[in-house]
Amino acid sequence: MHTISLGDGLQTSALGFGAMAVTHVYGGADDHAALGVLNAAVDTGVTFIDTADVYGEPEPGTTGPAGTNEKLVARLLADRRDEVTLATKFGITGLGGTEGAKATRGDADYVRASCDASLRRLGTDVIDLWYLHRRDPDVPVAETVAAMAEMVGAGKVRHLGLSEVTASELREAHAVHPIAAVQSEWSVWSRDVETNVVPACAELGVGFVPYSPLGRGFLTGTLTRDQVAADRRGSTARIGDNWDANQRVLAVVADVASRLGVTNAQAVLAWLHAAGERAGVATAPIPGTRSPHRLAENAAAVDVVLDADAIAALDSIADLVAGGRNIAADPAWISAGRE
User: Can you give the residue ranges of the NADP-dependent oxidoreductase domain (predicted)?
Assistant: First the structure.
């Protein structure tokens, strides 16, 4: 697989792997199977591995970020660190819903402690791309990024990223330290970032890492209602409440994929690469899967070229979507709720 350059000189594979997929969020996998998928990703050339300190079930008797997904990724890194571009995140405390507890923190003390904790769990001495997972509304983003930059100066982090930030927040942060990438939801059915955030990335030379590029699996056409009812997707507005209404979205994707002789996933991933090119932004989507077979299919998407009719059809999907993309009750949880 070819590599791309995001921002700040960061080189990654053109497709990444969202390791959250092998946690409990979407059904999960046992550690042996999950590690097998991670190794299969690297074998396939998908060497940009994305995790976060909050992914995974908290260990008994602990509070705060679970860290269990980072510990799983550590088992991959133990043998293959030199092959992996490692991304992780901090800032979501894991205490959301706990009375009196902050859902996010971005104060300097928390920044430093989170970096050291992730390094310990990952069993490595440096993080290639370290994101602020969600900003702390009580701390200026510039202050948080200044503390993150200290970790770069200390040699603990190579590049900085931000997740679900607005265009103004990105500019404020970038003025403090170069930002390599913004990670937010972006796909054929989640396009709000194209209004302000993506243009700001193009302006500043910042790469974009789309999460949930396959619509949490819905756009693949392989999910069943029973599957999503058993995990968090069943409680989302688009997949849970509007399963029937959004079958019209799926029909458009399936029609394009069938005509081109590719899978649904390949079609929508190819659309994202084309959308990035149109916007002048390097993109590295991070679909997740628990199947090595699906991994290989997704990796092949980087070589799929869409014709003008396919792009036009997929562009039309945004007008058909029922339900918003925010999976949290707080509108400010995603960038669109703060712009």
Answer: 15-318
